[in-house]
Amino acid sequence: MACLVGFTVNLITVAANSMKWKSQRSLQTCDKIVSHLAISRGLYLVSVIFRISIFKFFPRLLKNYIFLSILYVLNMFLFHLSHWIVTVLCVFYCVRIVTYNCALCVFLRSRISTMVPWLVTTSLIMSLLSSLPLALKSINLYLVLQIIFFISIL
């Protein structure tokens, strides 16, 4: 139930920002980050709902190791992606709020709007890299299980 409520809230956020973008032909930087966050959280919640539904209505798929591996790697990727985008949002707000006059703060404050697309892309790459070990572990474990299966047949 909580997943459906969360998905609905994220869907409303994306719809509101889409209508704002359609009427104004542009979005503020914080609205872009919030839209990316809502999309990533919405996709994560859809994957959780999908996983729960599959396990409840199709328990025989629990025996399919490839399907489970793909599902867990996808969940891990979307989970890390949403956390990295939250980090980008926090950095954006911190840079906007800080009133220090050091050279780095002034540089970041003047360039943060142009850096956000690169930060979101970096968050995508970082989440992909952080879910990659799980994918490699799943592939290796699958190969080991296949070898054990073939040895047991002989």
Automatic annotation (TrEMBL):
One of its GO terms (cellular component) is membrane. It is found in: Membrane. The chain crosses the membrane at residues 34-54, 61-78, 84-108. Belongs to the G-protein coupled receptor T2R family. It comes from Engystomops pustulosus (Tungara frog). It is a multi-pass membrane protein. Its main location: membrane. This is Taste receptor type 2 member 40. Pfam families: TAS2R. Keywords: G-protein coupled receptor, Membrane, Receptor, Sensory transduction, Taste, Transducer, Transmembrane, Transmembrane helix. GO terms for molecular function: bitter taste receptor activity; G protein-coupled receptor activity. The lineage of its organism: Eukaryota, Metazoa, Chordata, Craniata, Vertebrata.
